[in-house]
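$ ./design --mode recover --in tokens.txt
reading tokens...
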């Protein structure tokens, strides 16, 4: 009878342990799925406006005057016109793509609604194999989900130390992954001399009127701060090289 009791106790313990393992694994995948669904839901609300903004016919001289107003010199504007740049981003970058192209006519922008950082390696591989990966790279990823140290280091290894990489910090109030993502970007910049932080998170903080109702995507007032920040950081950093 004692032997049966011991077996029964062991079976109960095994069942409990197995249940905890299943719950933990299931919880992890549910959390990742929930994060993904949450990001997609936000993007669906603003998808059409972002696409419209990305294809907008902008008045070039008016946009160039905005760049001047926010700190670019005529010399830097002139240099930007001939600078080949590769840009990889999500919907935040997509919404400003038409304005970035005014300053950087030779900028190739691959930006997509809902994109997460894990999509970057395949994009970089494709650009490298086709000879289209430029020596100046701007990345605006991290808004839609978490990333790891391995993610960012892997991307930087792919790009190599000879390219100048500008990574835009993420801004999405209420998203649990934003602080860890931005800390990883800042930490990586300390160990990679060719990585430069474009701190959109710092600039955007406290400026709720810069954003659409979702608090993530810049409206007309906020967009100018986003694209001029990228331009200033790129041109002033390269000017020192």
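writing sequence...
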């Amino acid at each position: 009878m004692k032997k049966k009791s011991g077996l029964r106790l062991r079976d109960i313990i095994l069942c409990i342990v197995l249940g905890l393992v299943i719950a933990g694994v299931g919880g992890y995948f549910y959390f990742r799925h929930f994060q993904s669904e949450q990001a997609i839901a936000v993007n669906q609300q603003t998808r059409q406006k972002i696409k419209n903004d990305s294809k907008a016919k902008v008045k070039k001289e008016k946009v160039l005057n905005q760049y001047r107003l926010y700190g670019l010199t005529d010399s830097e504007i002139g240099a930007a016109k001939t600078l080949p740049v590769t840009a990889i981003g999500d919907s935040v970058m997509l919404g400003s793509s038409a304005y970035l192209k005014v300053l950087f006519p030779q900028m190739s922008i691959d930006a997509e609604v809902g994109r997460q950082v894990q999509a970057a390696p395949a994009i970089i591989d494709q650009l490298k194999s086709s000879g289209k990966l430029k020596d100046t790279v701007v990345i605006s990823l991290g808004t839609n989900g978490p990333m790891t140290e391995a993610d960012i280091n892997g991307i930087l290894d792919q790009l190599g130390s000879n390219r100048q990489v500008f990574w835009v910090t993420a801004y999405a109030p209420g998203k649990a992954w934003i602080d860890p993502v931005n800390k990883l970007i800042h930490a990586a910049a300390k160990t990679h001399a060719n990585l430069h932080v474009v701190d959109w998170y710092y600039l955007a903080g406290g400026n709720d009127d810069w954003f659409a109702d979702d608090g993530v995507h810049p409206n007309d007032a906020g967009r100018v701060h986003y694209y001029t920040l990228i331009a200033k950081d790129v041109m002033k950093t390269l000017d020192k090289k």
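exit 0
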